[in-house]
């Protein structure tokens, strides 16, 4: 039976600790098509707004619609714009869709525009047409430019996230997640902006 000296055991323990420490500090490599995290419970905040980066003009950031047309936030001046970041596989996103459809039907004629922006990953893009048919979605669906996603989702990539812009194109409200209380708050905010 081999004998180990305390110095050999100490050296072995030191090597194992170094490996564990260095492994814990290594950058985490994510997969490009990993889904965004989904909130499992009710949202805990309607704020804060995403951090504003100097030199970025939100009005010039945009998305591509399903028909290939590219639009920006500034294309919707004079309208109340709601951008809803979702994925077809996201359960809270699916729960929010009927409410968004209802809002668009009731307030669309008063100046409300809702746009659903899919951030479910490359594989989820192919699911969007079937998803739209399943829920009978009447509002526009598209895919955000990377710059728009980076700007609005920079501090949290949990979905759904819903952003409300006033008629001047100013971001006035952000909702992270979805619950019945979120639905009521979103409607009240939209009504207040439309009335103002």
Describe the overall structure.
- By secondary structure, the chain is α/β, with parallel strands linked by helices.
- The chain has one domain: Glutaredoxin (3-Layer(aba) Sandwich).
- 37% of the residues lie in helices and 19% in strands.
- It is built from six helices and seven strands.
- The chain has helices at 6-25, 91-107, 122-125, 128-135, 146-152, 180-195; strands spanning 62-65, 70-72, 80-86, 112-118, 140-144, 161-165, 171-176.
- It has a seven-stranded mixed beta sheet.
- Strand 3, helix 2 (91-107) and strand 4 (112-118) form a beta-alpha-beta unit.
- It starts with 5 loop residues before the first helix and ends with a helix.
Concise structural overview:
By secondary structure, the protein is an alpha/beta fold.
Detail the topology: elements first, then pairings.
Layout: H1 6-25, E1 62-65, E2 70-72, E3 80-86, H2 91-107, E4 112-118, H3 122-125, H4 128-135, E5 140-144, H5 146-152, E6 161-165, E7 171-176, H6 180-195
Parallel strand pairs: 3-4, 4-5
Antiparallel strand pairs: 1-2, 1-5, 3-6, 6-7
Total number of domains: 1
Spell the H/E element sequence. HEEEHEHHEHEEH
Q: How many H/I helices?
A: 6
Assigned CATH architecture: 3-Layer(aba) Sandwich
The profile of the biggest β sheet is:
7 strands, mixed
Beta strand %: 15-25%
Return the average pLDDT rounded to an integer: 81
Determine the fraction of residues in helical runs and give it as a percent range: 25-40%
DSSP E strands, number: 7
Per CATH, the class reads: Alpha Beta
Strand order of the largest sheet: 2-1-5-4-3-6-7
CATH topology: Glutaredoxin
Would you identify the regions where 5 or more consecutive residues have pLDDT less than 50?
16-47
Distance between the termini: 86 Å
CATH superfamily: Glutaredoxin
Q: Give the overall silhouette.
A: globular
- Structural class by SSE content: alpha/beta
Q: What is the gyration radius calculated from CA atoms?
A: 22 Å
């Amino acid at each position: 039976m081999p004998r180990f000296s305390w110095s050999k055991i100490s050296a072995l323990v030191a090597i194992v600790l170094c490996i564990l420490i260095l492994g814990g500090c290594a950058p985490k490599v994510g997969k490009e098509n990993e889904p965004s995290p989904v909130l499992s419970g009710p949202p805990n905040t309607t704020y804060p707004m995403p951090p504003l980066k100097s030199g970025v003009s939100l009005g010039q950031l945009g998305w591509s619609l399903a028909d290939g047309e590219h639009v920006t936030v500034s294309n919707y001046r004079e309208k109340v714009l709601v951008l809803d970041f979702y994925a077809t596989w996201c359960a809270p996103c699916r729960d929010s869709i009927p409410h968004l459809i209802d809002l668009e039907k009731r307030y669309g004629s008063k100046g409300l525009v809702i746009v659903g922006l899919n951030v479910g990953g490359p594989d989820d893009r192919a699911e969007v047409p079937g998803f739209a048919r399943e829920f009978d979605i009447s509002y526009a669906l598209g895919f955000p430019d990377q710059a728009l996603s980076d700007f609005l989702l920079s501090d949290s990539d949990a979905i759904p996230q819903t952003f409300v812009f006033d008629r001047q194109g100013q971001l006035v409200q952000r909702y992270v997640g979805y619950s019945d209380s979120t639905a009521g708050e979103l409607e009240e905010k939209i009504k207040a902006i439309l009335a103002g």
